[in-house]
Design a protein that fits this description.
This is Indole-3-glycerol phosphate synthase. The chain is built from eleven helices and ten strands. With 261 residues, it is of the alpha/beta class. The strands form two sheets. It has an eight-stranded parallel barrel with strand order 1-4-5-6-7-8-9-10, surrounded by four helices. It has a two-stranded antiparallel sheet with strand order 2-3. The chain is globular, with a radius of gyration of 17 Å.
């Protein structure tokens, strides 16, 4: 059993436990549940950089990345740097995140927030809305086409955008549908953790133009972003490059300034 399989098994147990404790009615009563959302896809279409920065404490492949900064400091630094959106890890067991991180980010900034999570149930989408997300992530590798349709349409009904993550052509062809806003190609194989930008390059021409193309993971240089822009990518989700530095916000600002020159 690979790490992704383990994560999904644990996630399904976690969701069922939460359902038994916190009813949907309580989630829907949240102050933020009916708040307006920001469009990440529109910002990416009109951006020169397309950077989506991430708040990420640790990962299964890299252990601790950064435990030294508060959520507020990191996301404010990112917003000041001019990013198009912020990805917030909310998985606790494997990434050290929480829904409270998302809530703190929402209270600190006014740019689009992506709930970075292994979503397997509509309940998690309700949580995302209640805690301030503007976008949810769906991972094609762990969902059927029927599940992607159900979850993406449900997200849209709540005013949330959907970023679908794929890793190969089979996943893309199986999962592509009108209820998606952005298609993200993960350059990291979630089963082996091998990283290569070739995944994004190979799939670029297969993604229909009506979807915003996002390249995810393994991006750490100006040259990589500029190369991927040639393939039609408008979004670049950078998970560890900024977080592994002493000041993620300052590093994001430096990166974006050099990128748009």
């Amino acid at each position: 059993m690979n790490i992704l399989d383990k994560i999904i098994i644990d996630k399904k147990r976690e969701v069922e436990l939460k359902k038994s404790i916190i009813p949907v009615s309580q989630i829907e009563a949240s102050v933020l549940f009916n708040s307006r959302t920001y469009s990440m896809s529109k910002l990416l279409k009109n951006s020169f950089s397309g950077i989506i920065a991430e708040h990420k404490r640790r990962s299964p492949s890299k252990a601790i990345i950064n435990n030294n900064h508060s959520v507020e400091d990191v996301v404010l630094g990112y917003q000041n740097a001019g990013v198009c959106g912020i990805s917030v890890l909310t998985d606790a067991k494997y990434f050290g995140g929480s829904l409270d991180d998302l809530l703190l980010a929402k209270a600190s900034v006014n740019i689009p927030l992506l709930r970075k999570e292994f979503i397997v149930d509509e309940y998690q989408i309700l949580e995302a809305k209640a805690y301030g997300a503007d976008v949810i992530l769906l991972i094609a590798a762990v969902l059927t086409r029927k599940e992607i349709k159900q979850l993406s349409e449900f997200a849209h009904s709540l005013g949330l955008e959907v970023l679908l993550e794929v890793h190969n052509l089979e996943e893309l062809e199986t999962a592509i549908m009108p209820s998606l806003d952005m298609i993200g190609v993960n350059n990291r194989n979630l089963k082996s953790f091998e990283v290569s930008l070739d995944y994004s390059k190979e799939l670029a021409s297969k993604i229909p133009d009506e979807f915003v193309k996002v390249s995810e993971s393994g991006i750490s240089s100006i040259e990589a972003v500029k190369e991927l822009q040639k393939y039609g990518y408008q979004g670049f989700l950078m998970g560890e490059h900024f977080m592994k530095t002493e000041n993620p916000g300052s590093e994001a600002q430096r990166f974006i300034q050099k990128l748009v020159i």
